[in-house]
Amino acid sequence: MAENQNSKDLYMIIKEKYQRKSVAGQLQSVFGKEIYHYSCLESTNKVAYLLAKKGAEEGTVVVADEQTHGEGRGDHYWYSPQGGLWFSLILRPRMISSEASRLSILGATGIAMSIDRLFSSLKVGIRWPNDVVIKDKKVAGVLIKVRAERCDVNFAIMGIGVNLNVREFPSPLSFIATSLIRETGDSTSKERFLESTLEELENLYCSSQVNGRILLEKARLFSSLLGRQVEVVTTGGKFQGLAQDLDEDGGLILRLESGLHKKILPEKGYVKERSPKI
Ligand code: BT5
Fold first, then answer.
1. Tens digits of per-residue pLDDT, 1-41?
2. How confident is the model over 176-205, as pLDDT tens digits?
3. For a 10 Å CB count at each end of the chain, is N or C smaller?
4. Other CB atoms within 10 A of residue 81 CB
5. How far is CA 264 from the centre of its chain?
6. Strands (E), 196-235
7. Ligand 1 centroid vs 89 CA: distance in angstroms?
8. Residue 253: in which H helix or E strand, if any?
9. Nearest CA to 227 among 200, 193, 253?
10. What are phi and psi of 230, to 5 degrees?
11. Is 237 left (phi over 0), alpha (psi -120 to 50) or beta?
12. Which letter, b or e, does each residue of 149-168 get, where b requires 16 or more Cβ atoms within 10 Å of its Cβ?
């Protein structure tokens, strides 16, 4: 894995800005105060996990221009060519492992808020639990890996992939994926987008540790599912029903055709897309 020198200066600018803010006491924690930038990695999540195990601080970011084995949830892959923003953020939340479910929603909400802030003409949504979509096509995804000791979270890795300047997708992704360049016609600075997303994530993270409802309210605003009939694929089978609400654990409340309600946790399922996950 080779550290990239070309755009390192731009990442240095983000770092320095965060260091200044932290000295001025404007931020409680500092996402992006340490940024490891590589031209190519198998997966930023793997490197971030190793760094966290060695004690890297909360807020440390690992970013790669390209990933050869980008990971999705379970055994899903993540297509990660040049042009996208692929990064992992190390978190050390004070929570028990059963509460870590909500980190998926936090990641997706932070990305959606960043897109909304930078591209107000785009209608961005969250397809529970971890997809960020534009016109029902996936523009970004979130992958959470948690390491727990007994019941407490030791650290969590929040892996984020955003299709920024990816012009083409191989079939069958071309039917279900989109990118910011395809939607806006313009390329976006990776550094600017990273900076904005880290700011949104940090604000949400700090505020939601004080009051979990703040995150929930934002997530509801962006949800592309609430009020729609959906099919959820879970480890225990498929369920059809009305997506009625989200709860503080990041769970989806589904009203089944029988009238009964079912809560599905983020790590237990996903909403079926038009073509299957591969
Ligand atoms: C995700 O999984 O959406 C998690 C994506 C996380 C990627 C980041 S990149 C930085 C960090 N390092 C990593 O190795 N991973 C994280 P999931 O919900 O399982 O969605 C995966 C599915 O999305 C695949 O099965 C494909 O159908 C589709 N997919 C793959 N690549 C895509 C892309 N670039 N854009 C949109 N959809 C994609």
1. 444 544 555 677 667 766 666 656 555 558 998 999 999 99
2. 999 999 999 999 999 999 999 999 999 999
3. C
4. 17
5. 19
6. 229-234
7. 16
8. strand 252-256
9. 253
10. -135, 165
11. left
12. eeeebebbbbbbbbbbbbee
Chain center to CA of 258: 33
Q: Other C-beta atoms within 10 Å of 256: how many?
A: 12
CA distance 209 to 204: 8
The pair of structure tokens assigned to 85 is 């923003």
**pLDDT number for residue 274:** 44
The pair phi, psi for residue 156, each rounded to 5°, is: -135, 145
Q: Is 170 strand, coil or helix? A: coil
Task: Tell me the three state secondary structure of residue 64.
Answer: strand
3-state secondary structure 67-123: ECCCECCCCCECCCCCCCEEEEEEECCCCEHHHHHHHHHHHHHHHHHHHHHHCCCCC
Spatial strand order of the sheet with 152-162 comes to 35-41, 61-67, 85-91, 152-162, 137-149, 131-134, 124-127
Helix (H, G, I), strand (E, B) or coil at 182: helix
Instruction: Tell me which amino acid residue 89 is.
Output: L
Q: Within a 13 Å sphere around the CA of 236, how many CA atoms are in the beta-carbon half? A: 8
C-alpha 76 – ligand 1 centre gap (Å):
7
Å from CA of 141 to ligand 1 middle: 5
